[in-house]
Amino acid sequence: MPFPKLQAKTFASIRELSGICARTMEEHYELYKGYVNKTNEIQGKLDAVDRASANQIYSDLRALRVDLSFAIGGVKNHEIYFSHLGGKGGAPKGKVAEMIKRDFPSYEKWLEDFKASGLAARGWVWLAYDYDWNCLTTTLGDAQNTFPLWNATPILAMDVYEHAYWIDYGRARAKYIEAFFNNLDWNVVEQNLEKALAMQAVHK
Fold first, then answer.
1. Quick one: which of 11, 26, 82, 103 has the most CB atoms within 10 Å?
2. pLDDT digits (tens, 9 = 90+) for 103-124
3. Based on the number of CB atoms within 10 Å of its own CB, is 198 exposed (0-12), middle (13-18) or buried (19 or more)?
4. How confident is the model at residue 1 (pLDDT cuts 50, 70, 90)?
């Protein structure tokens, strides 16, 4: 079946950031490359799997499909994450700021909730644009492939797996969350939102 062979992308954020050391970013990037490699490997196995033995209890097809969703989630989540790190933090401007203020009680309330969600999640927190309800929403996932919002696109992704912060902060995840926002490039988040809105306009 046709499937593009993935190549790991490069990101300017793979370096020392404010409050996040170069080793953390470099080790984290190696994990991302592993997701890329495993996506390609699993897809290759899917091309040759015996579909006649498929069943819901256990089958090679089921196992590969489940693991492919985890690997692809690892690729896409990290590509969002790395792409919008390396900025100067602060508050958003433009359409992102406008829509956060529209869809949440205030920017400050959204930020408070997002940070708390980062403490509650086991894997990821996303700010996503929902195409059905035409609004921004915050959601969390406990793994690369859990709790997706159907017909919604993440525009901001915060990794809260321990590998994202343990070298720098140990168990102090809240300090990492502060560092994440201090390095966030809101211009990239704005571009992500613009792409989501443009996609919605095309499909109306």
1. 82
2. 999 999 999 999 999 999 999 9
3. exposed
4. low
Q: Which of 38, 29, 30, 47 is nearest to 71 (CA)?
A: 38
> What strands lie across the sheet with 135-141, from one edge to the other?
135-141, 124-130, 152-159
Q: What is the DSSP string of the chain?
A: ---PPP-----TTSS-BTTB-HHHHHHHHHHHHHHHHHHHHHHHHHHH--GGG--SSS-HHHHHHHHHHHHHHHHHHHHHHHHTBSS--S---HHHHHHHHHHSS-HHHHHHHHHHHHHH-SSEEEEEEETTTTEEEEEEESSTTSSPPTTEEEEEEEE-SGGGTHHHHTT-HHHHHHHHHHTB-HHHHHHHHHHHHHHHHHT-
Please tell me the class of the 94-202 domain.
alpha beta
132 is in an annotated binding site: no
142 marked ligand binding residue: no
| Predicted confidence (pLDDT) per residue in 47-94, tens digit | 999 999 999 999 999 999 999 999 999 999 999 999 999 999 999 999
Query: Token digits for 149?
Result: 């919002």
Give the residue extent of every domain in the chain.
Answer: 22-83, 94-202
| Inter-CA distances, 180 with 1, 71, 177, Å | 39, 23, 5
Is 28 assigned to a binding site? yes
